[in-house]
Design brief:
With 68 residues, the chain is of the alpha+beta class. It has 2 helices and 4 strands, in the order βαββαβ. The two termini are 19 Å apart.
Protein backbone atom coordinates (compact mmCIF):
# COMPACT_ATOMS: atom_id res chain seq x y z
CA UNK A 1 0.00 0.00 0.00
CA UNK A 2 2.58 2.56 0.99
CA UNK A 3 0.77 5.84 1.59
CA UNK A 4 -2.77 6.64 0.43
CA UNK A 5 -4.86 9.74 0.92
CA UNK A 6 -8.65 9.90 1.11
CA UNK A 7 -11.23 12.62 1.71
CA UNK A 8 -13.70 11.89 4.52
CA UNK A 9 -17.10 13.56 4.37
CA UNK A 10 -18.75 14.86 7.53
CA UNK A 11 -15.83 15.31 9.93
CA UNK A 12 -16.30 18.56 11.83
CA UNK A 13 -14.54 18.24 15.19
CA UNK A 14 -11.75 16.55 17.11
CA UNK A 15 -14.20 13.87 18.26
CA UNK A 16 -14.85 13.01 14.61
CA UNK A 17 -11.13 12.90 13.98
CA UNK A 18 -10.60 10.54 16.92
CA UNK A 19 -13.36 8.19 15.77
CA UNK A 20 -11.93 7.92 12.26
CA UNK A 21 -8.36 7.57 13.52
CA UNK A 22 -9.34 4.77 15.90
CA UNK A 23 -11.36 2.93 13.28
CA UNK A 24 -8.68 3.06 10.60
CA UNK A 25 -5.86 2.24 13.01
CA UNK A 26 -7.63 -1.07 13.60
CA UNK A 27 -7.40 -2.13 9.95
CA UNK A 28 -4.91 -4.96 9.42
CA UNK A 29 -1.59 -3.78 8.01
CA UNK A 30 -2.10 -0.07 8.81
CA UNK A 31 0.98 1.40 10.50
CA UNK A 32 0.18 5.13 10.60
CA UNK A 33 -2.95 7.29 10.36
CA UNK A 34 -3.12 11.07 10.04
CA UNK A 35 -6.43 12.95 9.93
CA UNK A 36 -6.77 16.66 9.13
CA UNK A 37 -10.28 17.88 9.98
CA UNK A 38 -9.71 21.26 8.31
CA UNK A 39 -9.88 19.69 4.85
CA UNK A 40 -11.21 16.22 5.68
CA UNK A 41 -8.00 14.53 4.60
CA UNK A 42 -7.18 11.03 5.83
CA UNK A 43 -3.67 9.78 5.14
CA UNK A 44 -3.00 6.10 5.74
CA UNK A 45 0.39 4.37 5.71
CA UNK A 46 0.59 0.61 5.70
CA UNK A 47 2.08 -2.50 4.23
CA UNK A 48 1.01 -4.24 1.05
CA UNK A 49 -1.71 -6.25 2.83
CA UNK A 50 -3.92 -3.19 3.46
CA UNK A 51 -7.18 -3.44 1.52
CA UNK A 52 -8.57 -0.04 0.45
CA UNK A 53 -12.09 -1.46 0.86
CA UNK A 54 -11.24 -2.24 4.50
CA UNK A 55 -10.36 1.45 4.94
CA UNK A 56 -13.72 2.42 3.39
CA UNK A 57 -15.59 -0.01 5.67
CA UNK A 58 -13.77 1.20 8.80
CA UNK A 59 -14.61 4.83 8.00
CA UNK A 60 -18.24 3.83 7.36
CA UNK A 61 -18.45 1.92 10.64
CA UNK A 62 -17.19 5.07 12.40
CA UNK A 63 -20.17 6.91 10.91
CA UNK A 64 -18.51 8.72 8.02
CA UNK A 65 -18.07 8.27 4.29
CA UNK A 66 -15.15 8.53 1.91
CA UNK A 67 -15.60 10.87 -1.04
CA UNK A 68 -15.65 9.05 -4.37
Amino acid sequence: MGESTYIVKGMTCSGCMNKVTGAVTGVAGVTEVDVDISDGRLTVVGDSSVDPEAIRRAVGEAGYELAS
